[in-house]
Amino acid sequence: MALFNPSRDQVRLFFFDSWAKFNAQQPLTDLEKLAVEVMQMHPEYHHVLNAPETYLDQSYFPEMGETNPFLHMSLHLSVLEQVAIDQPPGINAAYHSLWRKYDDAYTAQHDLMECLAETIWQAQRQGQPLDVQAYIDSIEAKVRA
Predict the structure, then answer these.
(1) How many domains, in total, are found in the chain?
(2) Are residues 50 and 12 in the same domain?
(3) Domain limits at 107?
(4) 102 and 58 together in one domain
(5) Is residue 60 part of a domain?
(6) End-to-end alpha-carbon separation of the chain, Å?
(7) What is the value of pTM for the model shown?
(8) d(CA 91, CA 74)
(9) What is the spatial distance between Cα 53 and Cα 57, in angstroms, rounded to a whole number?
(10) In a structure prediction context, what are the per-residue pLDDT tens digits for the chain, which is 145 residues long?
(11) Half-sphere exposure of 4 toward its Cβ, with a 13 Å CA cutoff?
C-alpha cells in the first residue's frame, strides 16, 4: 500500500482551495470533486473551511476531545480512493457490504476509516510500515460484525 505523504499545510491548503473553488463555481479536478463531496457531508466543518487564515495553523488535541477536521476528511478521501481502485484487494466489496448493512455510505466509510486510522496508529506506535494484512483483517471483522 503506497501512501502519498503531503505536509500538514499542503493537506489543509488542498481542502481550503477545493472548497473555495467549489464556492466560486470554478472547475474542479476529480480529486477536488471527491474532496468537496466529503466536505459537503460535514457541514460542521464549513466554518473551518471558510476561514483558512484562522485554521491553517490550528492545532487539534485528541486528548482534549478535539477532532481534527482535516485528518477526518483525509481519512474519508483515503478510504474512497482505496475503494475506487480496490486496494487493498477486497475493500470495494467490503465497503459495499457495509453500505448495504447500514443502508448508509457515510457510516460504511466511517467503519473503514476506523480500521485505517487504527492501522496507521499501530504502525506509527511500532515504528513499522503499515501492516496491510492487519488492515484487511480489521475490515473483514467490521463486515462480519
Answers:
(1) 2
(2) yes
(3) 86-145
(4) no
(5) yes
(6) 25
(7) 0.89
(8) 17
(9) 8
(10) 334 678 899 999 999 999 999 999 999 999 999 999 999 999 999 999 999 999 999 999 888 888 999 999 999 999 999 999 999 999 999 999 999 999 999 999 999 999 999 999 999 999 999 999 999 999 999 999 9
(11) 10
Q: At what angle do helices 91-102 and 132-144 cross, to 10 degrees?
A: 30
Q: Do 58 and 95 belong together in one domain?
A: no
**Alpha-carbon distance 48 to 29, whole Å?**
22
Q: How many CB atoms lie within 10 A of CB 121?
A: 10
Last residue of a domain, one of 33, 66, 99: 66
Query: Which long-range contacts (C-beta less than 8 Å, at least 24 apart) are formed by 11-14?
Result: 11/70, 11/74, 12/52, 12/55, 12/56, 12/70, 13/52, 13/56
